[in-house]
Write a structure and sequence with these properties.
By secondary structure, this protein is α/β, with parallel strands linked by helices. The protein contains 20 helices and 26 strands. The chain folds into 4 domains: about 160 residues, Rossmann fold (3-Layer(aba) Sandwich); about 160 residues, Methionyl-trna Synthetase, domain 2; about 150 residues, Isoleucyl-tRNA Synthetase, Domain 1, CATH 1.10.730; about 90 residues, Beta Barrel (OB fold (Dihydrolipoamide Acetyltransferase, E2P)), CATH 2.40.50. Helix 12 crosses helix 14 and helix 14 packs antiparallel against helix 16. It comes from Halorubrum halodurans.
Length: about 725
């Protein structure tokens, strides 16, 4: 890993968090896979040697439970979903170089080898812990067979995670008031001997790792609080049959009377041990297929494997924010302990809501991946929507109305309009591409700016900025052709007309190259219309500045409008499905009430989905325009940031408001790296009443969104002091 700007001489691996082989994919799931694919393609456009890998997460309790309910083996159940995912991703142009799964031979061997290395290095130990046990059904209850109360925040929690509250990872035995999710019986805790990984020994390393980590700020800031609170060692084994066996075979006697020994052969590894190791295994499989000369997995993943780059390759993880802890605490500690390269970056996405409300799989309130395609929509507009609708770490809302507006305004009205009008004019007025000595300096410079914007977006880990670079270039193209009006020049000034259209074709070629990561299929079609040689998927950004040389074919419009009546039809279908599912759920609840039973497992999907999309409803209390005008909201720029002695979560900021620089106290500690705040544009409520906080007078309020304090900022270059109207 270099931390040099991309492209580097080191091999890069881009991974996506593994989809859990337990149910259908919806567009909320697709956000990280589309984001990962866009980023991997963009790296390749820069000339970076890149492998894009992932795989299905086959193990864990929910798979075992649902397989039992379906009357099939966990392996058959998970493989069925794995095969569906492997078929679905290409339909959305998500093009993994290798897509494996955690139960295959490669990952089993790699996982057990890495665990043996952890043990040999002295980082594993045995410990007696309290494990939930169902005395009625006479069985131990690992992970999600248990639910209860989070000991840290008091919210409802699963056995391995506080999914509805603080999202903290929970060790076996931590959940209070445990209940079996299988039977509904109250559970009790009994002692069992399990294997632990001493994560606490890596606190200092992990603090330094977070200082070096690139990607989204939430991936750096969220784990700092866990380190400051003190890391707990990690139980890496579970009492169940489905999973990768804990390597070894000697039975361990319980040192305490009344405890129950656990033979290592009776234990499987916790799913979060073998899941990230699939990243390595999938890269291995890619090398096995293409050869080490094409891509060397060891040079990417192992420190010292490549003498020219002993620190390893450029590892970029693209994940959902609910699994930040696993990728920034447990996983890098495992890599460090076993001589593997650490991740260079973690890109943690926000969640996707649906029309302002949470996805609910049990109520069928979702836009399913297959459903989107069955409605006749092309995958590339959805890729554009998911990639560019907000910053990657922000929550975004999908609605058919918003989808229509983005498609019609930006893809059809801006990008598509420029491409079609300019290429159609060229095709009708010239046999081949219009001949000019070269692209004009103005246009060549503007294309160069777009290339620089794309390069900056890749190094800033911003898939949104990748899309913005292209739509801005297309917007320039529309203004350029409208200003020069070649249709007025073609008869009287044919050379001038040819120059203008040559410039427009050059812009179209640049769009094909630079937009390929987001809209690969549409750009392949555009490349063919331009008559360019080779594949648009294999060129680098340098091709965006090369003169167009192809013979133009008659163009067709790349993007189709989404009509209002289609939106009404789609909304009606969704509402009908939700109403039917809710009616079925009410019938099930009535049946449960009648026989005194409950189905906790059925509730699990809703629990996870509502956690993913927990957004407060919009207030019905309105304010007048006059009341809004009373708010003095200004653009500011943070000049200095410092911690306040004795304050757990407050920082002292010096903020330039144009006409003056003020001291403002903000609750950003632990959520933003203090050293990275200076230079950040923020939005400030300037006429907030002054307040004395920990001996510091705060003169204003910095505005931020959500529990992670996502700072409000400006899209363009508004100067400090500019009023927000």
């Amino acid at each position: 890993m270099s931390h040099d700007d991309f492209p580097t001489d080191h091999p890069a691996v881009v991974t996506c968090g593994l989809p859990y082989a337990n149910g259908d994919l919806h567009i909320g799931h697709l956000r990280t896979y589309v984001g990962g694919d866009v980023y991997a393609r963009a790296l390749e456009r820069l000339g970076q040697e890149t492998a894009f890998v992932s795989g299905s997460d086959m193990h864990g309790t929910p798979v075992a439970v649902n397989a039992e309910q379906a009357g099939v083996s966990p392996e058959d159940f998970a493989l069925d979903w794995h095969e569906r995912y492997a078929e679905t991703f290409p339909k959305f142009n998500v093009d993994f170089d290798n897509y494996g799964h955690t139960h295959d031979e490669t990952n089993t061997e790699t996982t057990q080898e890495l665990v043996r290395d952890l043990d040999a290095a002295g980082h594993l130990y045995e410990k007696e812990i309290m494990v939930a046990y169902d005395p009625v059904d006479d069985q131990f209850l690992p992970d999600r067979y248990v639910e209860g109360t989070c000991p840290y925040c008091g919210a409802h929690a699963r056995g391995d995670e506080c999914d509805e509250g603080c999202q903290r990872h929970l060790e076996p035995g931590e959940v209070e008031d445990p209940v079996s999710t299988i039977s509904g019986n109250p559970a009790e805790y009994r002692e069992r001997t399990h294997k632990f990984f001493e994560v606490s020994a890596f606190s200092e390393y992990l603090s330094g790792f977070l200082d070096r980590l690139e990607g989204t700020s939430n991936a750096r800031n969220q784990p700092r609080e866990w380190i400051e609170q003190g890391l707990q060692d990690w139980c890496i084994t579970r009492d169940m049959d489905w999973g990768i066996d804990m390597p070894g075979g000697e039975a361990t006697e319980s040192p305490r009377e009344g405890g129950e020994a656990a033979d290592s052969q009776d234990l499987v590894l916790y799913v979060w041990v073998d899941a990230p190791i699939e990243y390595v295994s999938s890269t291995k499989q890619y090398t096995d297929r293409v050869g080490a000369d094409a891509f060397d997995w060891e040079a990417a993943w192992k420190e010292g494997a490549d003498p020219d780059h002993p620190e390893g390759g450029e590892i970029v993880h693209v994940i959902g924010r609910d699994i930040i802890q696993h990728h920034t605490i447990f996983w890098p500690a495992m890599l460090e302990a076993t001589g593997h390269a650490e991740p260079r970056a973690v890109m943690a996405s926000g969640f996707v809501t649906l029309g302002g409300k949470g996805f609910s799989t049990s109520r069928d309130r979702a836009v399913w991946a297959d459903e989107y395609l069955e409605e006749g929509f092309h995958p590339d507009p959805l890729r554009y929507y998911l990639a560019t609708n907000g910053g990657f770490q922000q929550d975004v809302d999908f609605s058919w109305e918003k989808f229509r507006d983005r498609v019609n305004t930006e893809l059809v009205g801006t990008v598509g309009n420029f491409l079609y009008r300019s290429l159609l004019f060229a095709h009708r007025n010239y046999e081949d591409a219009p001949v000019a000595d070269a692209t004009s300096e103005e246009v060549a410079d503007r294309i160069g700016e777009a290339v620089a914007d794309v390069e900056a977006a890749v190094n800033d880990y911003s898939v949104r900025a990748l899309g913005d670079a292209v739509t801005d270039l297309a917007r320039f193209g529309n203004e350029y052709i409208q200003h020069n009006e070649p249709w007025k020049l073609v008869d009287d000034e044919p050379e001038a007309a040819a120059r203008v259209i040559h410039d427009c074709v050059a812009i179209a070629k640049a769009i094909a190259v630079l937009f390929e990561p987001i809209a690969p299929e549409k750009c392949e079609r555009l490349w063919d219309q331009l008559g360019e040689d080779g594949s648009v998927h294999e060129v680098t950004v340098a091709a965006a500045s090369e003169e167009p040389e192809g013979d133009l074919s008659e163009p067709t419009e790349l993007f189709e409008k989404v009509e209002d009546d289609r939106v009404e039809e789609l909304n009606a279908k969704l509402e009908s499905r939700v109403a039917e599912a809710e009616a079925d759920e009410e019938d099930d609840e009535a049946s449960d009430d009648a026989d005194g039973s409950s189905d906790d497992q059925d509730d699990e999907d809703d629990t996870e989905d509502t956690d993913m999309t927990d957004i407060d409803p919009i207030s019905d209390d309105r304010i007048s325009f006059e009341q809004f005008q009373d708010l003095d909201v200004r653009v500011g720029r943070i000049e200095e940031a410092a911690e306040i002695e004795g304050a757990d979560d407050l920082l002292k900021l010096r903020v330039d408001l144009g006409v003056e620089t003020r001291t403002i106290v903000a609750g950003l500690k632990g959520l933003h790296a203090v050293e990275e705040l200076p230079g950040t544009k923020v939005v400030v409520l300037a006429n907030m009443e002054k307040a004395d906080l920990f001996g510091v007078e705060s003169n204003g309020m910095v505005l931020a969104a959500g529990e992670q304090a996502d700072l409000l900022t400006t899209h363009e270059d508004a100067e400090p002091g500019t009023k927000v109207l």
